[in-house]
Amino acid sequence: MQNAVRLTKMWALWSHLQIIGDMVGHRRMTPSGNYYLAFEGIRYAEPPLGKNSFRNPVSDNYLYNLKRKVYCMDVDPKDGKVFGEEDCLCLNIYTPVPYDYKKMPVLIWIDGNLDPLGKINYEPERLMDEWMVFVTMSYRVGPLGFSSKLNMLHRDNIGLKDQEMAINWVITNIHKFGGDPKKITLGGEGLGAAFALHHLNNAMKDKIKRGIALSGSRFAPWAFGPRSWVASQSDKLGYRIRCKDLACYKSIKANNLVHESYKMRTEQLDHGKLLYDGILMQRTMLLPFLPVVDGKIIKYHPWERPSDANFNLLLGLKKDEGVFMDEFINRYNWTDAIIKSIFNSRVDYEVMTGKPFVRKGSKELANLYHEEDSLESKNLRNLAGDGWFVFPAMAEAKYHVGPLTGFMFDNLNPTGYPPCLMQSNVPFLTFDCPLHFRYEQAASKMTRLISNFVYQRDLSFELKPYSKDKDVFNITQALLDPAGFKTIDTGMSKRMEKWKSLNMLSLHYH
Hints:
By secondary structure, the protein is α/β, with parallel strands linked by helices. It is built from 17 helices and 13 strands.
């Protein structure tokens, strides 16, 4: 009798596990009743500890997993606390059951940490119902992944090199999980979208032929950090922790380094310098440590030379991209004087597009925004959305070589629940927002859109013009000619036509 009970328990456990080599997958079920396997914490590189810290990733050829999600070390802006681990170079792979002898399409997703509201807790259930393999990755961020001067002896863009190694690992091994290495789509949102586009236009251009970019572009001013700026931030961080060389940095606990970097950034955002230095605000508001042009992973700045990479791109925007600015205004108690100063400085300098434009043009832009609304916060919100998201998307569309589909979606936040301002970027990957009919309806539409793109299906059935679908709608032509925004938002159409008329979409060659 005891043996029978023991066998029953063993079978119950085994039925919820699946083993591939030394990798253990946990069996789970979607809300729709479909089963899938979660292989979490798969190492794609050696632990970035000791001699491997502040260095390029080192391949780990032994296939095994930690059986749990692993996050790289960062700070949650909601409470200022450090989370994650220094030993974090892992993948998560989710595959529908049964996966044996199948060749399903694969979606690799790069997390973006651009938003001030914190990280998204990605869940794959909606995509598992669409029968595709879904992959996420952890990569080094902040001073551990993008501190240019610290890494001078070991190259730049360590975080991007982590991503590249993870992507190559997937290309090599995804067939073991029922994925087709010839049908991989690389995507991301926010900064993750910019990262995906960096890879697709450079090292991955001959390996992956489909990309998804939501609320992010290579042409955005936050997609790069000027080398001098990133180096100066490394110097400031070194001064704060009393370090001048790499050996000293290695002696500092990683969580202390990450937290000190966060404190440095928030102090700059709180400081009165915002009244006088909009460029300081621009670069510290999001992330002080960003990718730099290194001649390898990022061969050149996109504003300097067009890419010849030919791949199919799905480019998405929110209807009100500037809504994130409200969080900064509220969190840091910005006065009208600070808001006005930030607006003026952002119009005057290259901080909007990553390149300078003529004084006459900046004055025309300022007048246009003030004519539309007298409320300073609304003007700043529109300017941030236009300059950091819509205009870069127009540039991405103009210089993209391969097939392109553009779409826009409502913020999908009828509840007013703050975290959903962020999570509505990717409703096909999140379930944390309060249930609401319109949110669920739009989330289902986006899930089908993403699925159809990954499966290389015709998108015209799912993607309608704004007049026929107010939740998720086609803006492909509007990205090429902003007059097309008139049926969606006359103010946006007028503003983006002005941006285009100032010849700001032209490349500047060196």
